[in-house]
Amino acid sequence: MVLAIILICIILLILLVSWGKVNPFVAFLIVAIAAGLLLGIPINKLMASIQKGMGDIMGKLLIIICLGAMLGKLVAVSGAAQKIAEVLVKAVGEKHIQWALVTAGFIIGIPLFYGIGFVLMVPLIFSVVYKYKLPAVYIGLPMLASLSVTHGFLPPHPSPSALVAMFHANMATTFIYGLMIAIPAIIIAGPLFAKFLKKIHSEPLATFRADELPAEKLPGALNSFFTALLPVILLMLSALFPYLGIKNVVAVKVIAFLGDPSIVMLIALVVATFTLGIKQGKKMNVLAGNYTDAVKDIALILLIIAGSGALSEVLTTSGASDQIADQLKTLNMPPLLLGWVIAAIIRVSLGSATVAGLTAAGILVKLVTKSHVDANLMVLSIGAGSLAFSHVNDSGFWLFKEYFNISIKDTIRSWSLMETLVSLTGLAGVLIINQFVK
């Protein structure tokens, strides 16, 4: 019954947005209310649940997305993105620019949380697309596939890191296995799959489209790369700090504060305001106008993400995820495959990869202990399942759709299938590795 209600709500959401042309934020609110009533949430608590879901997801993403949009706008209008694109293409040639972006996305994606990586990489993708007149989805999706793979498979990302702790797995072993799986997953779901997407028409978000500047007005290559990648550098330094053996309590607290993604983005924007703004002769009122325009352009994206958080919270509060999990416990299949299936079904139902991974792990903790299955591979199996078929109840789906400005149909046949290919390739990799480590 629960699965039927969730399916009806998802279909309703798709119909409202695609057929009824209802604003996606309004559609999410309607569907979240309907789902809450159908799933038995008391009417006097329903709006509190919706508000909590919106608040939770906005609390995590609002600062990051807004500051990321401002930084992306500045990187675009200053000519830094143009300079980065020119350097990359000169290094590998226009023919291989897609692979250069994939490699950059993978390296950057290891220390960088997915949401930050997305808003930082999109301006770079679009600068290449505009300058060399290449198909946006064809060029951009492989880089985002590499970000998705690191998010689902590799510590120190939240879900795999949490699963390592829950299953008492080995962080280093999980990372090594994850790398072995990540590379083929990126290749298959990225450049190979993207060959079938060249005809998707896309007019990417205008905020990251800047007029091409003459060479003498461009910032230097070092300045451009350093400023654009400063958030990555700061997060990498923060991640390495615990391994330096420094025990000073004050230093640990200060680094933890400075390493918070929101603080990192703020520091990066302040630095960029000087290096790509004031240093390049721009006045503060002009820069302020650029930042205002950037936030205006992503306002609808923020509302849509808030709406997806509302629906996800309603489904969680109602106990839908627990009921689905209980029904799946009776399935008779190998533990690693069961972990993938449970995570995948919860992911499709609730939208959040992190929620899917943690929920599936909670169900299977005792099973892993009793069956003596490899804990490192179970982390990766659940991680792969948590990426399966991202669709209209996932904030990542809407980020991709709105930034690239394509239809729901094209988003499903590009983004959703890419995520599914990553998931299936991950499962295959887990099962193959399991044959050699038994």
UniProtKB/TrEMBL annotation:
It comes from the Bacteria. It is found in: Cell membrane. It holds the Pfam family GntP_permease. Its main location: membrane. One of its GO terms (cellular component) is plasma membrane. It is a multi-pass membrane protein. One of its GO terms (molecular function) is gluconate transmembrane transporter activity. The keyword Membrane applies. InterPro entries: Glcn_transporter. The chain crosses the membrane at residues 30-49, 61-81, 101-129, 136-154, 174-197, 218-244, 250-277, 298-317, 337-365, 377-400, 420-437. Keywords: Cell membrane, Membrane, Transmembrane, Transmembrane helix, Transport. Belongs to the GntP permease family. This is Gluconate transporter.
